[in-house]
Amino acid sequence: MKKFRLLTPGPTAIPEKVLAKFAEPIVHHRTSLFEAQFKELQSQLQWLFQTKEIVLTLTSTGTGAMEAAVANLFSGMNASTPHADEVITVNAGKFGERWTKIAKAYNLNTHEIVVERGKAVTIAAIEKELRAHPQVKAVLFQASETSTGALMPIKAIADLCKKHQVLSVCDGITAVGIFDVPMDAWELDVLITGSQKALMLPPGLAFIALSARAWKANESSNLPKFYFDLKKERKAQEKMQTAWTPAISLVQGAVVSLKMLQDEGHQKLFATHEMLALATRNAATALGLELFSDAPSPVLTTVKVPAKFTVDEGKKIAKIMQEKYGVIITGGQDELMGKILRLSHFGYCDIFDVANGISALELALLELAYPLELGKGVAAVMKTFKDSGLAL
Ligand SMILES: *Cc1c(COP(=O)(O)O)cnc(C)c1O
């Protein structure tokens, strides 16, 4: 009997307790029953985001919250505004490219910084764009670029934005709840996450918080918005309601999964993810695999497909892992297809899940005649865990 194990960057595995919650009868959302749960969720989300601001819950995937950020902060050209707002987007991979596409879809004057795949954007590159375009209103970036596994210099970007008095708009979809991104302490203006990543839920909810400065920008934003009108949402959510019918079951599940995260505590949560990432990197090195990113994120580890493999053979690695061993990882997208493997280690994932993943990887590589000593990667995983001194 094959057991499936998700080591993917969303959706991630869902804890049994959360799944059990979905079996409960649904409540109506315009009732005190829902409001009590929503109140609980709001305070949990503030804990998660490390913010005093209200964290809005949207019924959409993470991309919906990205679109909401753009539609609610900026202005397009019309009779009273002769120019569309200017923004800088950091395209360090598929998700950064998405910022560019959204900004362009709203006809913003978009200055895109294209970063070499696998690298983190440099502060110098952003500063250069800011100097070249003094009218820029915001920098849109990822905390961790999931398509390449690169970690961005988040705090330094927030500091730079503050210095230039522009908004820092951070897609923290694979960051929040995995490593430390304290929204208020770092003075980020927008922070976003989604349900199917660190929150250990099915896809369907997105979360977004705005700083006072961002809410001020919202006052003058003239871009069209309806479903994702954040001012309308805030008004409703301040009263423990939502503008539209929320994904009620997911809200109920979120209260349970966030309680699990709160029980761990920020420190343990972040230390564990650091350790899982280190264990994966050590396993890769022990197997003679090369890391793809030189700024590896604690979210997922990207490794290069060994040079002796063709692109088709590269694609086969994940296929064998899934079809034979039930371990689901992701490969590269677009130009990285067949060239990298992405091993995710966040959400409902512990050191033994990582060991499972590495053992399936070893077997798949062996099948493709890659020379390795079976168990060497797994041993590195176990050693890293033991040396960390962390408990489960
Ligand atoms: C998953 C993800 C998203 C959102 O994708 P959806 O498919 O809309 O959930 C956005 N940014 C990053 C960095 C992600 O990892």
Give an overview of the whole structure.
This protein is an alpha/beta fold and 392 residues long. It has 2 domains: 248 residues, Type I PLP-dependent aspartate aminotransferase-like (Major domain) (Aspartate Aminotransferase, domain 2, 3-Layer(aba) Sandwich); 124 residues, Aspartate Aminotransferase, domain 1 (Alpha-Beta Complex). Helix content is 43%, strand content 15%. Helix 2 packs across helix 9 and helix 10 packs antiparallel against helix 13. The longest helix has 21 residues. The chain starts with a strand and ends with a helix. The model has no long low-confidence stretch (mean pLDDT 97). The structure holds pyridoxal-5'-phosphate (PLP). Pyridoxal-5'-phosphate binds next to helix 3.
Rg over alpha carbons:
21 Å
Strand percentage lies at: 5-15%
> Could you say which small molecules are bound to this protein?
pyridoxal-5'-phosphate
The CATH superfamily title of the largest domain? Type I PLP-dependent aspartate aminotransferase-like (Major domain)
Helical segment count: 13
Query: Spatial order of the strands in the main sheet?
Result: 2-10-9-8-5-3-4
Short description:
The protein is α/β, with parallel strands linked by helices. The chain has 13 helices and 14 strands. The site of pyridoxal-5'-phosphate has 13 residues, from helix 3.
